[in-house]
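Methods: holo model generation. Sequences were used as deposited, without trimming of termini or removal of tags, and paired with ligand SMILES retrieved from the corresponding compound records. Each pair was processed once, and we did not select among multiple samples. The sequence and coenzyme A SMILES for this entry were:
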Amino acid sequence: MSEFHVRAVAEGEQRACLELLQQSLHSRPMSDEAWEKMAPSWPAAGKFAAFDDHATPVGIASSFDTELTVPGGRKLVTSAVDGVAVRADRTRRGILTTMMAAQLEDMAARGVPLAALHASEGVIYGRFGYGAATYGKSVLVERPRAELHDGVGREGTVRFLTPAEAVERVPALYRRFAGERPGFVARPEMWWPGFFDRLVTGDMGYRVAVHSGPDGEDGFVVYQTIDLRDRQAPERGALLDIREMHAATPRAWAGLWRFLLSVDLVSAVAGRGRPMDEPIAELLTDPRAVNTTEVIDDLWVRLVDVLAALTARTYGTAEPVVLEVLDRQLPDNNGRYVVGPKGVERTTADADLRLAVDTLASLYLGHGFFEHQALAGRVEVVDAAAVARADALFHTARAPWCGTFF
Ligand SMILES: CC(C)(COP(=O)(O)OP(=O)(O)OC[C@H]1O[C@@H](n2cnc3c(N)ncnc32)[C@H](O)[C@@H]1OP(=O)(O)O)[C@@H](O)C(=O)NCCC(=O)NCCS
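and the model returned the structure below.
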């Protein structure tokens, strides 16, 4: 008899599943008050769990449906996988594998073409067809050296919002800005209480500042400051740590950086998971004031319906390529696809390149190169000339970026 069985989570079982997730992620136990705040963001829908013989959850795989922007600007329905864990005394006996299979089959049956997640470790999700499709960088800007070029605009203004104003106004601002960059996910109503509202109304000292340009409010930043001073080094000042920052235009974005670098008694400005192509050094007279301290995988994507996903995005200019895709979990995706600037269709033509669905996922939003995946043996090259064509078709000038934690 199996030690566990996997099924959809029923109403009333959510809190036990969230507690299991938090325990597995080494968070502190949750108070009743904390649960009440989280509950709207943690519905039963979209969750599969593994239960033991006493109906106690020992594994959880949670998701909610949202939209993801793909190259060309289309927003595609996407299952955002937002909580995965197996109880520490039940790991490595196939619970995650069974939950992932149930979740993927459910997405496929519902016609959801994409899934996406943030991974706690880089070695877990490739086997389930996910590939690291966007990356982010951590930056540390040394404020004393960070002088802006004269040409950086000064026309915008920045003002703080109170926590209550932020809760009320920022979701609408985000909806206006989000969308054009590949990798962005829409934040559904239920996302805000658990992530944003808790952050800005909590006791961690987060501030929310909004930038206004000629057409009104066009950017916001959420940050906290961390005092670095002690008796030996009173000159250290504070670290200004950006939690999130989104802007409708490059000018609004530069205006927010002007503001962040102007805050007194701050010795450095830091941001994690910033877009790979965020041009901070270009704003400054001394590009060495910017240190990139980390580059890390950001959004992992899974093509649940390969044809629908490939058809939804646009491509660069090159002759078409024929890709042969291998998908162990969802075999309906197996087969050959001709991909070109005019569109995508299934084909019986010979393959130019062969690759597994996780490798395709890592290239899907425009990050990386077929050439590099071929070097690693992750793309089998049948026709060598097709590698450069595939890169010209898939790679995007603008780096894909998610910018939302879930
Ligand atoms: C990661 C986690 C969910 C894996 O669950 P699990 O039930 O042990 O996974 P499975 O038994 O189904 O393992 C499937 C395969 O993945 C491998 N694997 C799973 N987790 C792994 C890890 N953290 N590192 C390396 N390999 C891992 C297993 O060895 C197994 O490999 P095999 O098929 O070659 O035998 C579980 O360890 C966990 O909850 N960790 C803490 C919370 C966490 O990291 N959650 C993920 C948040 S994104």
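Residues 24-25, 84-86, 91-97, 119-121, 123-124 surround coenzyme A (CB under 6 Å).
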